[in-house]
Amino acid sequence: MSIKYPPQAIDRILIFDTTLRDGEQSPGASLNVDEKLVIAKQLAKLGVDIIEAGFPFASPGDFEAVQRIAEQVGTETGPVICGLARATQADIQAAAQALAPAHYKRIHTFIATSDIHLEFKLKKSRAEVLKIAPEMVAYAKTFVEDVEFSPEDAGRSDPEFLYQVLEAAIAAGATTINIPDTVGYTTPAEFGALIKGIKDNVPNIDQAIISVHGHNDLGLAVANFLEAAKNGARQLECTINGIGERAGNAALEELVMALHVRRQYFNPFFGRPVDSEASLTNIDTRQLYKTSRLVSNLTGMLIQPNKAIVGANAFAHESGIHQDGVLKHKLTYEIMDAQLIGLAENQIVLGKLSGRNAFASRLRELGFELSETDLNKAFLRFKDVADKKREITDWDLEAIVKDETQAS
Ligand code: KIV
Ligand code: ZN
């Protein structure tokens, strides 16, 4: 198991994946329980530290998904399985019940702290929130050891009030305090300063891990997180392909690759020698591309071609000058090797000699579960394409399946 307590012992970044909870809140991205299970297994293979598997009180489907992921993915070697709960007893009970089978379980409870949310959404005073937050953390603690607390809309909350709520939540037993920029409003310098302010002003902050959660309304979520990490955040909450509410969440693949490619820049903020090669996360970067395709195919959320790291053009060179440069030396226009994200390995997957089993198994990895009839049709079409095209890429496979299954 990778999470060490006390939190001061954390000298790397914990990756908390919320694709199945906040990611699934993307308009149009609903997943059934089996699909969630497939994604959770792949997230475990990717090496995420914590999977936020859902919001058990929200619906019977979410409850079942969290329960099945807790049973089948939460083993003694991790990852931690987490369930979201508002700061109410009913939500916390549902989360505890769904998480019960997991080896390592976490309840993530939240309540808003910004005046806008207090006045218009919760209709509660600051004093009430300051009372409820620790009470509900303590209640969650009666079910699990590992409790995360989030002051929702922290990015727009009065810092002095935020410090008070966080101190009370930690005193009540929160092991992680998560700082959400719920509406993607802050800028990197502000978000970094907010984390520094929390470190400097919350007296018991050393008893908890500082986490960050952020949305991409201004396209700043990843930049904000990197600034937060430099200022002491040790858990980043993110989603595959950056899917999530509105403009989405911070993208896991971008964060992980930024920390990897620029590790010499980040190392000193983690007390490491500048030239340390040790990874700052636990992620197996070679699983990134495959995970991205799987999530895109199962959610139906397309990836823009110029999306950093996993977009179709991320490693493509179109202009003559760039092509010439790359042929002379890759480093002229490439800052990372496509193989690092598992792209080159996955791009050329099958050829005309590949059999039906290999074809079906690759489709399953990409998130396609076809009926026998559709599989047969797709396989015939694949053979046809493979005869004409030496290298069949994942994109070819996806196009074949979409054509064939839409035609039926
Ligand atoms: O964006 C947000 O504030 C959230 C919380 C529940 C952490 O998703
Ligand atoms: Zn969120």
TrEMBL record:
Its cofactor is Mn(2+). One of its GO terms (cellular component) is cytoplasm. It catalyses: acetyl-CoA + 2-oxoglutarate + H2O = (2R)-homocitrate + CoA + H(+); 3-methyl-2-oxobutanoate + acetyl-CoA + H2O = (2S)-2-isopropylmalate + CoA + H(+). It comes from the Bacteria. Its EC number is 2.3.3.13. Mn(2+) binds at residues 22, 213, 215, 249. Pathway: Amino-acid biosynthesis; L-leucine biosynthesis; L-leucine from 3-methyl-2-oxobutanoate: step 1/4. Coiled coil: none annotated. It is an enzyme of class 2 (transferase). GO terms for molecular function: 2-isopropylmalate synthase activity; acetyl-CoA C-acetyltransferase activity; homocitrate synthase activity; manganese ion binding. Belongs to the alpha-IPM synthase/homocitrate synthase family. LeuA type 1 subfamily. This protein is a Fe-Mo-cofactor biosynthetic component. Homodimer. This is 2-isopropylmalate synthase. It comes from Pseudocalidococcus azoricus BACA0444. The lineage of its organism: Bacteria, Bacillati, Cyanobacteriota, Cyanophyceae, Acaryochloridales.
